[in-house]
Task: inverse folding
């Protein structure tokens, strides 16, 4: 039996600022100065193995992702006499998953594939606007989240060395 354990980690952080004259004309109708701060990290653990001789290959694993960030902009609309600060809009999110993928080698040419993945996703985006005097109007929040189980079923048949025939039934979007 062949077994391996793989741990995958990632970390990302960036801050950026940019200015934008939306209409590009000599008299600006909308000017923006935007700032984006972002931090994300993830962890994934996978156990790849085989069992029952050459009959079964499998991958069992888990995944976690988390992000935090803000988007802020100074927005000037000279034609309307408006000047306000958009944000900081917070963008936290996380994702958790556990998965199992199996390949059953029934013959040299026929493999049955089955798997399942459980996922829980959370995303939050908080809209904020500030007046030019930095007073805060009411914050509005839009929340989205999803929990689901996605089964996987397929049948793969090797028809010749350079070709392979695969039939797949996927529950995504069904």
Result:
């Amino acid at each position: 039996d062949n077994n391996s354990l793989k741990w995958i980690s990632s970390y990302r952080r960036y801050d950026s600022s940019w200015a934008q004259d939306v209409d590009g004309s000599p008299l600006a109708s909308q000017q923006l100065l935007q700032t984006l701060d972002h931090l994300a990290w993830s962890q994934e653990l996978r156990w790849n193995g085989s069992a029952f001789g050459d009959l079964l290959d499998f991958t069992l694993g888990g995944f976690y992702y988390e992000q935090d960030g803000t988007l802020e902009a100074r927005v000037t609309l000279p034609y309307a006499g408006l000047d306000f600060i958009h944000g900081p809009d917070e963008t936290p999110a996380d994702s958790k998953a556990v998965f199992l993928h199996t390949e059953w080698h029934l013959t040299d040419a026929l493999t049955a594939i089955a798997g399942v993945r459980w996922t829980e996703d959370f995303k939050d985006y908080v809209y904020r606007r500030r007046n030019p005097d930095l007073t805060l109007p009411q914050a509005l929040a839009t929340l989205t989240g999803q929990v689901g189980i996605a089964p996987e079923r397929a049948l793969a048949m090797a028809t010749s060395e350079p070709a392979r025939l695969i039939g797949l039934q996927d529950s995504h979007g069904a």
In short: The CA atoms of residues 137 and 152 lie 47 Å apart.
